[in-house]
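Retro notes (design track)

What went well: tokenization of the new backbones is finally stable.
What didn't: we kept losing track of which sequence belonged to which structure.
Fix going forward: every design gets posted as structure first, then sequence, in one message. First example under the new rule, 203 residues:
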């Protein structure tokens, strides 16, 4: 089921989400719905606060970001055996996640957010992370990710910490996009996926 994504201005987007346990009602269906909602909006990640739930779940599929590269590689024969292994991405649900460590050189990447449509800005993030989390079967993982997959995880992890990517922008950049953010919160934006807007809710 495709769920509506809450827009910039909803209080749930600015609150630290709470842990859940394995008995959380309809957990598997919720995770399936989150993936379906993410794909419907052409996203690579989605956190529970973005569908109005203040719980520590997010899903990602960074594999999508490497599909074009894989298709291109299949049509060429110039790959050498000694080449460095390419990043392949990850499709995973993260429950009760905690970032244990960040490392590597911070690097910029142009980010957007399904809750803040049509706004994209460069954000500096750590190159490598170590994260502990439970998967959808409530099996515990302690893993290291880097580059694009680490960035997608960090973006979604911020959501369960009540942080939006716009928080990383300079005061000048935030002033420049303030009018756009106000319009989004009022529902004055065209999107091709279901959304809920805080200003409309108050009417």
């Amino acid at each position: 089921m495709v769920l509506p994504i809450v827009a910039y201005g909803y209080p749930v987007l600015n609150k630290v989400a709470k842990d859940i346990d394995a008995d959380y009602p309809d957990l598997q269906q919720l995770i399936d719905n989150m993936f379906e909602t993410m794909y419907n909006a052409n996203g690579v990640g989605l956190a529970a606060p973005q569908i109005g739930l203040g719980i520590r779940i997010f899903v990602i599929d960074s594999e999508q970001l490497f599909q074009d590269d894989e298709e291109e590689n299949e049509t060429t024969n110039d790959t050498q055996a000694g080449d460095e292994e390419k990043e392949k991405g990850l499709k995973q649900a993260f429950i009760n996640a905690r970032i244990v460590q960040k490392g590597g050189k911070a690097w910029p990447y142009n980010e957007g957010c399904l809750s803040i449509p049509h706004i994209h800005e460069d954000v500096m993030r750590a190159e490598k992370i170590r994260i502990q989390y439970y998967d959808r079967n409530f099996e515990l993982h302690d893993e290291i990710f880097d580059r694009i997959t680490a960035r997608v995880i960090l973006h979604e992890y911020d959501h369960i910490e009540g942080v939006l990517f716009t928080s990383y922008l300079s005061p000048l950049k935030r002033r420049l996009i303030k009018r756009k953010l106000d319009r989004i919160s009022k529902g004055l934006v065209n999107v091709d996926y279901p959304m809920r807007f805080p200003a409309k809710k108050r009417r």
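Added context from the reviewer: The first strand starts at residue 5 and ends at 6.
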